[in-house]
Amino acid sequence: MALVAGRRLSWIRLGVVVLALAGIVFTSLRGWQWFQDSRVKVGEPSWFAGYVDVTATPSYEFEDPEPGAGNSAVLAFVVADPDQECAPAWGGAYTLDEARDQLDLDRRVARLRQLGGAPMISFGGQANTELAVACDDVEELTDAYRDVVQRYEIGVIDLDVEGEALSDDAANQRRAQAVAQLQKEEGTEVWVTLPVAPHGLTDEGLELVTGMLEAGVRLRGVNVMTMNYSDSKEPGDSMAEASIKALEATHTQLDDLYRGVGDRRTAAQLWRLIGATPMLGQNDVLGEVFSLDDAAELKEFAAAQKLGRLSMWSLNRDRACSGNWPDITKVSTSCSGLNQATGAFAQLLGAKLESGPGVTAEPEATDEPTAVDEDDPATSPYQVWNAEQAYQAGERVVWRRNVYVAKWWTSGDVPDDPTVADDSAPWRLIGPVLPGEKPEPLPTVAPGTFAKWRPGAAYVAGDVVQLGDLAYVAKWWTQGNSPDAPSTQDSPSPWKRLEGAELKEARAKAGS
Prior knowledge:
Layout: H1 11-38, E1 47-48, E2 50-53, E3 73-81, E4 84-90, E5 94-95, H2 96-103, H3 105-114, E6 120-124, H4 131-134, H5 138-152, E7 156-160, H6 169-186, E8 189-197, E9 200-201, H7 203-214, E10 219-225, H8 239-260, H9 267-272, E11 274-276, E12 281-282, E13 289-290, H10 292-305, E14 309-310, H11 344-350, E15 354-355, E16 390-391, E17 396-399, E18 402-406, E19 410-411, E20 427-432, E21 458-459, E22 464-467, E23 470-474, E24 478-479, E25 495-497, H12 500-511
Parallel strand pairs: 1-14, 1-15, 2-3, 3-6, 6-7, 7-8, 8-10, 10-11, 11-14
Antiparallel strand pairs: 3-4, 4-5, 8-9, 12-13, 16-19, 17-18, 18-20, 21-24, 22-23, 23-25
Transmembrane segments: 12-32
InterPro entries: CBM5/12, CBM_sf_5/12, GH, GH18_Chitinase
Keywords: Hydrolase, Membrane, Transmembrane, Transmembrane helix
């Protein structure tokens, strides 16, 4: 190419032109990529559901959520039964049947559905033994997952893998195979919940996700535990800043990971694949405190990126500690250690989000019976409510095909009276009568377990007697009042029939 006479080639100008052309090409390509990405479906709306520690004491009534907290929950944790490696158990303390009988868990899950909620179940957690670690047979492991999913009619499960379970390669392979089979049979959606640092997931976490995908699991998402950073957090960073860094790093990692398995996702799709779960208030690491301000900052980031999921650990802890808790820097399972209103974190994090995966704002209409004569004593698990009878705190009744528990002494108060405020109502709704339920058999005792009741004897509060094969405890001084006489408003019974934990404790005292 000839040069124009009298002019010299300017390498600076040429460089500017080349850079400009490169910029135009780059911008065009990025614009085209953005255009293509914008046309790709990103999936279901973002949602919120807090974790509930099902076996913690005192029990959290997830079936009666705080106002604004949403009507869904992630129920934690199903682990391996200590006495049977491949059997699922709640917190290693209750078999599924024991949770039904002692925690009324089946009914409470059904109640959550009455409210229009979608309960999730989380397998694993930091404590106890994770199912895939204990059970070395893939078929039996699949059976364990299936038992839980079918029993509670769960559409979405959460696999919380941390600690030693995360580094157990054999367990990770078994879990992936079992979950892939479960998903094939039941169509169950799957989230994995993993520890994270500001620089992202650990190598073990990335390997677990890769293994799940290679096994054929269609992951709904990766939920990262934005908590307990320890030395990985920059000293000057707030908990919210460290959490946002962790989410951004996870986004980059998942982009690389999905590209590596030949499944390219757009930036928006990747954000929908990510969830965040902070630990409220005082974290397990001393000095790490996730405040309401941190929650607001994390919420703003999640809303801007349209994060797929927000959760929190836990709904049990979403309240201030009472003055009886001596050291707020010590983690409690029942409070956050902050000066806060009850339910404040759930209200903040859950604002303007769906309440759980695929949940509508309003519960579906039901065809529940409306007449009292629909309650059949032959098929009701507890006595049908009677306006003439007096009930003590803790007693349960069936009314219009729902189960209620008395909060204090009551007589003549209709359990489902809609005009009485919750804090004034003597009854609390637990949930519906479940299909196939029958009256609970009375807990009997062997002859001679306790002293036989005598009509002429005087008894004081706390005395335990036996009438036939049933045991009773005196509530106040009494003489001549038969323990099996009905309790009414005009003549309340001084006796309470013993059952459950109270009967077990009384037996232990009698045998000592």
